[in-house]
Specification:
Elements lengths: L6 H6 L10 E3 L4 E4 L4 E6 L2 E2 L7 E2 L4
Antiparallel strand pairs: 1-2, 2-3, 3-4, 3-5
Family: Belongs to the UPF0434 family.
Pfam families: Trm112p
Protein name: UPF0434 protein CLV63_109100
């Protein structure tokens, strides 16, 4: 699954938990916050920025 988000939107989105910037993981269809360790789903092209909906990612 490949997902895209407009660059202008990605620039203004922030993690609701840490307020850190998000990066797009197109292949996973998620917005990832490296600071909080959360990945937010993108459903039907709409980012779901709810901490309860996010999954915890493994540190790299």
């Amino acid at each position: 699954m490949s997902t895209t988000i407009d660059d202008w939107l990605l620039e203004i989105l922030a993690c609701p938990k840490s307020n850190a910037p998000l990066r797009l993981d197109e292949e996973a269809g998620e917005l990832v916050c490296d600071e909080s360790g959360l990945a937010y789903p993108i459903r039907d092209g709409i980012p779901v920025l709810l901490v309860d909906e996010a999954r915890t990612i493994e540190p790299s």
